[in-house]
């Protein structure tokens, strides 16, 4: 099961280029492992989306998909994998 | 190091040129780079050349489309990338690519996996994630994938089969790489890193999307775009290594493969054609034999001069290895003539005696003192090519003959890369972006053929675009893409004339495909062909030759006389009289107003005069004022002078004026002591400012060393340097003079037949209307369109004694008529003549609107007399005039379907139809034929022209420079050509029944008058007279009126009102000053009809 969030903006701490923790709805989640990363870019004829995705495992075992919006320089939370 | 990269020769798939690919690879420090275009090797020669200058090793390959093994659900074509290691591999690659194109439908190339495996030698195969096995594997069926790849494993071996992995930083990429590596393990072959490159930098990924959607003709949208991100670019080595940091062997393997490539395309090495010779005979011996036989055939005397000249040419040809080429071309020319088609060689090849003796050319190089070295010599850095003109209407037949006679493996047509220009780019991108068609159309058509690069500048500058109703953001998007498409290949077309003549290795070095009309065509354009070292023959379709053929056929048909143009006397009195009278409308090369004026001054009396006339009437000689001294000396008003007596032999024929390239060579030889080869080398480099001083010094020193006075030597050089770039190749002019003389001969002796040919094939610069005028001036009746007598072409009919001939108007020019309709009309007519309109409707497939047009233009006027009933049609009196025929054409119902005629019998017979008025007749002729047959159109405006007080064309030459004049006429042509200054200039030609009037419309007045200029078919122009060039009369437009509007206004008594006040009319001159701030928009673009 996955749960989608409305692309909530989050604050991310980085460590050596990799995200190490993020803060969402007032709570801080520590990242224990980066499981995957990928990039999507396109739709230049519309909104010109350009994102770096990170699939991370937070402490407690939950897996989250975060992305960095390269166009607007912002982090968002997209998904929680239960 | 990339093994899989596409250029823009993967049409609408790759977003860079071969040159850019080579350049970028070098920039990134790659030792080698592969170009693997989809189903083609179009860019191969360019790519190899570019890699050579960039210092990168080129790897040639292709991404071949493989048809799905089964036709089941989800069976798609899929690519396999093949790379050539050696000659055998490249030959196989060419063969497979050729098969892909020739075995399937045009535009849908594909091969079967078995074919690839059957020609695997010397090739490396890359099975990537998008290949059939790759898809199975990434779909989770690695075992099935390995089975499917089995034949590849067997054919290519572990040595030359590779599994290609890509890591595109997509969500599934990690898994995909792992799966592909498992496939490699299963096949026991190494895997190699690739990146499926379609663009050089990530910022260009948008182009790949646009191209992809344009190719598939779908709107640009997420679900139509295959990429998820912009990672498919030409990544630098470090970035590729970083992608596969855990498996460095993948990148190492790509380098290892690159090192194994030994193939060299071998650019610029000449590959001579094969010519089968009898056992024990060399091509050289055979050519010599043919030439000596030619001496007899041409009835030439074997003089020492002839022997020396032939010896010189043959030894040069032997030394350079061209004998087989000459033999091949000679055979082709003989074959063309054997088909009953005129063939004539043009260009510098006419300067060769060998060409004359072998029947390639009709110009006696010896008699006209032409220089062989101008055509062929060891110092020339370009391959010689021979241009052969043939009848335009038979060009396809000639192509078919050459390609089949000459063998499938040795000859092919040359391709032509059709590239994007603004108009096409805007249309296609606009469509893909989903912009409204009307708006996109306005933008697209507003531009002349300017390059996409200048779109934005054009938007700022063209007033007609200011009202465009599209959001700026959309336009910017449109332009952003369209701008980048500039120079991209759009499709691969057939070159209009080139044929490669090669040896049997052609198919091993160039893939072939099929052109739209079915000819075998090399995947190489003319530059590629030159790079590849192949000789070519240019076969040009020339309408004048078809016109003359038609004339000769018509002479034979109507008089029984068989004219042989090769045997007509070359000093025919009436012909030269016609030329001196400049009655040369329709004649080859000498029909323009300027030429006719020159003929009058030059008064040619001999064949040689035609050569000089053609040579002098060029922009260079006109501008540099070579004509005046020539004419003065010729006319005896000036004494010919020679800088040095040694120059007399070379320059005597033109009274000391340097006119020909050949004279430049001979001057250099006579004074500087150069051989003609070196002289030609100097001549061809005279445009090079850097080399000039050295040339001059050497020349002068050599001349002085030979005892020439220093001052004379220097003046000789300056004369050479000044005129060399303006001179004309005498051989070329001599070749032109052949059809020039023959066409003039035909016009002098058979004017009606000649004009019928010209009208049919329309070879010249004048519209048919003007040619009809010419016929009228010669007293040749123009016979009306007649449904029972008109032929597809213009034909000649004898109209009673004394041997008068008229020209019958042709069906081919009936607006909207198709070839099938003409055939139907002719075959029905062969059974029995048509009786009336209904007869045509019943017995032919001619569409009703076309029948109406025929009636309207008078094609039934000759049908009168009582009408006999037939079949279901009830008898009724025939129509006796045109309005009646037209009525029939419109009302005769459903006769074709076999229904009862529902013609309103009660009304029709008793109905009186008024005759067409004269104006109606001419209007109908213009509507249907585009010709005013019975009267000149302008004649209807005569009262108006009188009231306006216009200056007639025939009086213009007597007017002063800068005089203000009012002219009027029917528009016969308008043009918006490239002009160096960059401003848009409209040239309009008017015809007022006394001659043509040239009008120039500069940008400064265009906002006011452009609309009228483009849309009115008859106009009055107020402007200033300018003298330019030889002919030198042009009207610089200041104001323009639609003649029909003035005509109406005159009828309503408000002509002066319509013309505006005198003050307005005499406003400051329009002037030729370019508007300021004008970009060089139209500099490099060809003209377009306005």
Describe this structure in words.
Chain A is mainly beta and 82 residues long. Chain A is 0% helix and 73% strand. Chain A has a six-stranded antiparallel beta barrel with strand order 1-2-3-4-5-6. Chain A is globular. Chain A starts with a strand and ends with a strand. With 1090 residues, chain B is an alpha/beta fold. Helix content of chain B is 43%, strand content 13%. Chain B has a six-stranded mixed beta sheet. Chain B has a five-stranded mixed beta sheet with strand order 7-8-13-10-9. A five-stranded mixed barrel of chain B has the order 17-18-19-21-20. In chain B, a hairpin with a 7-residue loop joins strand 20 (1018-1026) and strand 21. In chain B, helix 23 (543-559) packs across helix 35, helix 30 (661-672) crosses helix 31 (676-684) and helix 39 (848-856) runs antiparallel to helix 40 (882-891). The longest helix of chain B has 20 residues, at 730-749. The radius of gyration of chain B is 34 Å and the shape is globular. At the A-B interface, strand 3 of A face helix 9 of B.
Question: Layout of SSEs?
Answer:
The complex is a heterodimer of chains A (82) and B (1090).
Chain A: E1 2-15, E2 18-24, E3 27-41, E4 50-58, E5 63-69, E6 74-81
Chain B: H1 18-27, E1 32-38, H2 44-54, E2 57-66, E3 78-84, H3 87-103, H4 113-118, E4 123-127, H5 132-138, H6 142-148, H7 150-160, E5 161-166, H8 173-187, E6 191-194, H9 205-216, H10 237-243, H11 249-260, H12 283-297, H13 304-320, H14 323-338, E7 343-346, H15 353-357, E8 386-391, H16 395-405, E9 411-419, H17 422-432, H18 437-446, H19 455-461, H20 472-484, E10 489-501, H21 506-509, E11 512-514, E12 520-522, H22 526-531, E13 535-542, H23 543-559, H24 573-580, H25 593-602, H26 607-616, H27 619-623, H28 627-634, H29 648-651, H30 661-672, H31 676-684, H32 692-705, H33 710-724, H34 730-749, H35 751-761, H36 768-777, E14 782-783, E15 795-798, E16 805-808, H37 819-831, H38 837-843, H39 848-856, H40 882-891, H41 918-929, H42 942-948, E17 964-976, E18 986-991, E19 996-1001, H43 1006-1015, E20 1018-1026, E21 1034-1042, H44 1043-1051, H45 1055-1059, H46 1062-1065, E22 1088-1089
Helix pairs in contact in B: 1-2, 5-6, 6-8, 12-13, 12-14, 17-18, 17-20, 23-34, 23-35, 24-34, 26-34, 30-31, 30-33, 32-33, 34-35, 35-36, 39-40
């Amino acid at each position: 099961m996955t749960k989608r969030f409305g692309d909530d903006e989050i604050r991310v701490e980085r460590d050596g280029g990799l995200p190490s923790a993020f803060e969402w709805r007032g709570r801080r989640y520590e990242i224990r492992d980066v499981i995957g990363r990928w990039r999507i870019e396109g739709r230049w004829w519309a909104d010109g989306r350009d994102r770096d995705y990170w699939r991370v495992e937070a402490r407690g075992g939950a897996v989250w998909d975060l992305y960095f919006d390269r166009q607007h320089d912002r982090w968002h939370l997209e998904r929680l994998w239960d | 190091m990339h093994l899989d990269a596409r250029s823009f020769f993967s049409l609408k798939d790759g977003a860079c040129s071969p040159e850019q690919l080579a350049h970028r690879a070098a920039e990134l420090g790659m030792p080698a780079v592969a170009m693997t275009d989809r189903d083609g090797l179009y860019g191969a020669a360019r790519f190899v050349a570019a890699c050579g200058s960039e210092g990168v090793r080129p790897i040639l390959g292709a991404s071949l489309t493989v048809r799905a093994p089964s036709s089941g659900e989800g069976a798609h074509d899929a690519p396999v990338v093949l790379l050539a290691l050696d000659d055998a591999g490249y030959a196989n690659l060419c063969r497979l690519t050729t098969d892909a194109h020739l075995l399937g439908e045009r535009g849908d190339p594909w091969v079967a996996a078995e074919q690839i495996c059957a020609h695997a030698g010397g090739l490396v195969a890359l099975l990537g994630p998008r290949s059939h096995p790759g898809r199975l594997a990434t779909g989770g069926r690695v075992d099935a994938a390995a089975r499917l790849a089995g034949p590849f494993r067997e054919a290519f071996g572990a040595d030359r089969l590779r599994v290609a992995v890509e890591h595109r930083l997509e969500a599934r990429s990690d898994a995909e790489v792992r799966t592909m590596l498992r496939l490699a393990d299963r096949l026991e072959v190494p895997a190699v890193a690739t990146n499926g490159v379609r663009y050089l930098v990530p910022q260009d990924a948008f182009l790949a999307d646009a191209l992809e959607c344009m190719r598939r003709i779908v709107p640009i949208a997420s679900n139509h775009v295959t990429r998820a991100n912009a990672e498919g670019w030409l990544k630098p080595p470090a970035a590729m290594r970083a992608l596969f940091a855990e498996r460095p062997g993948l990148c190492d393997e790509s380098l290892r493969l690159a090192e194994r490539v030994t193939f060299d395309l071998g650019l610029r090495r000449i590959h001579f054609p094969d010519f089968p010779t009898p056992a024990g005979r060399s091509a050289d011996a055979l050519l010599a034999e043919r030439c000596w036989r030619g001496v007899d055939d041409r009835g030439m005397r074997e003089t020492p001069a002839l022997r020396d000249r032939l010896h010189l040419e043959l030894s040069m040809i032997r030394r350079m290895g061209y004998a087989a080429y000459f033999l091949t071309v000679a055979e082709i020319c003989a074959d063309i003539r054997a088909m009953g088609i005129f063939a004539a060689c043009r260009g510098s090849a006419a300067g060769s005696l060998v060409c004359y003796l072998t029947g390639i050319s009709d110009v006696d190089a010896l008699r006209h003192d032409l220089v062989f070295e101008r055509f062929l010599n060891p110092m020339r850095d370009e391959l010689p090519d021979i241009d052969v003109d043939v009848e335009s209407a038979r060009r396809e037949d000639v192509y078919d003959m050459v390609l089949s006679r000459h063998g499938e493996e040795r000859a092919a047509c040359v391709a032509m890369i059709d590239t994007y220009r603004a108009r096409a780019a805007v249309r296609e991108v606009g469509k893909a972006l989903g912009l409204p068609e009307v708006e996109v159309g306005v933008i697209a058509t507003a531009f002349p053929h300017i390059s996409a690069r200048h779109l934005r500048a054009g938007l700022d500058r063209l007033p007609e675009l200011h009202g465009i109703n599209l959001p700026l953001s959309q336009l910017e998007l449109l332009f952003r893409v369209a701008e980048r498409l500039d120079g991209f290949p759009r499709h691969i077309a057939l070159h209009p004339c080139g044929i490669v003549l090669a040896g049997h290795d052609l198919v091993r070095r160039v893939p072939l495909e099929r052109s739209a009309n079915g000819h075998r065509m090399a995947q190489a354009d003319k530059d590629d062909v030159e790079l590849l070292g192949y000789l070519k023959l240019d076969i040009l379709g020339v309408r004048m030759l078809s016109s003359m053929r038609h004339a000769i056929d018509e002479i034979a048909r109507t008089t029984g006389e068989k004219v042989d143009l090769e045997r007509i006397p070359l000093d025919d009195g009436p012909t030269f009289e016609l030329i001196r009278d400049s009655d040369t409308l329709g004649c080859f090369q000498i029909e323009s107003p300027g030429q006719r004026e020159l003929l009058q001054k030059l008064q040619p009396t001999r064949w040689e005069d035609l050569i000089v006339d053609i040579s002098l009437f060029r922009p260079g000689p006109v501008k540099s004022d070579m004509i005046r001294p020539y004419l003065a000396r010729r006319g005896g008003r000036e004494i010919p002078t020679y800088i040095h007596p040694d120059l007399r032999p070379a320059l005597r024929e033109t009274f000391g004026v340097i006119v020909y390239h050949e004279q430049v060579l001979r001057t250099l030889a006579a004074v500087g002591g150069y051989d003609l080869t070196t002289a030609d080398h100097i001549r061809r480099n005279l445009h090079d400012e850097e080399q000039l001083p050295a040339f001059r010094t050497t020349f002068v020193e050599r001349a002085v060393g030979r005892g020439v006075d220093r001052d004379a030597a220097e003046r000789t050089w300056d004369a050479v340097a000044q005129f060399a770039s303006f001179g004309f190749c005498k051989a070329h002019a001599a070749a032109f003079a052949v059809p020039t003389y023959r066409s003039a001969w035909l016009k002098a002796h058979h004017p009606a037949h000649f004009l019928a040919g010209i009208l049919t094939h329309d070879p010249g610069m004048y519209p048919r209307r003007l040619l009809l005028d010419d016929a009228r001036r010669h007293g040749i009746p123009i016979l009306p369109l007649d449904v029972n007598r008109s032929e597809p072409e213009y034909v000649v009919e004898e109209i009673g004694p004394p041997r008068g001939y008229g020209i019958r108007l042709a069906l081919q020019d009936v607006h909207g008529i198709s070839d099938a309709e003409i055939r139907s009309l002719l075959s029905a007519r062969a059974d029995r003549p048509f009786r009336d309109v209904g007869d045509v409707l019943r017995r032919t497939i001619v569409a009703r609107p076309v029948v109406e047009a025929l009636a309207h233009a008078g094609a039934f006027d000759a049908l009168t007399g009582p009408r006999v009933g037939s079949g279901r049609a009830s008898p009724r009196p025939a129509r006796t005039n045109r309005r009646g025929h037209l009525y029939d054409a419109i009302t005769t119902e459903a006769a074709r379907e076999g229904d009862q005629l529902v013609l309103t019998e009660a009304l029709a017979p008793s109905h009186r139809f008024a005759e067409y008025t004269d104006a109606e007749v001419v209007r109908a002729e213009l509507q249907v034929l585009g010709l005013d047959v019975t009267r000149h159109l302008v004649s209807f405006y005569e009262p108006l022209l009188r009231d306006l007080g216009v200056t007639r064309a025939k009086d213009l030459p007597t007017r002063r420079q800068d005089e203000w004049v009012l002219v009027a006429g029917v528009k016969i042509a308008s043009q918006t050509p490239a002009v160096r200054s960059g401003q848009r200039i409209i040239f309009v030609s008017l015809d007022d029944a006394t001659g043509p009037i040239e009008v120039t419309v500069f940008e400064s007045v265009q906002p006011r008058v452009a609309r009228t200029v483009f849309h009115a078919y008859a106009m009055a122009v107020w402007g200033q007279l300018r003298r330019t060039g030889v002919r030198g009369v042009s009207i610089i437009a200041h104001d323009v009126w639609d003649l029909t509007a003035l005509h109406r206004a005159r009828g309503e008594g408000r002509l002066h009102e319509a013309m505006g006040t005198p003050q307005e009319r005499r406003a400051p001159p329009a002037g030729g000053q370019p508007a300021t701030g004008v970009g060089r928009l139209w500099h490099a673009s060809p003209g377009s009809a306005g």
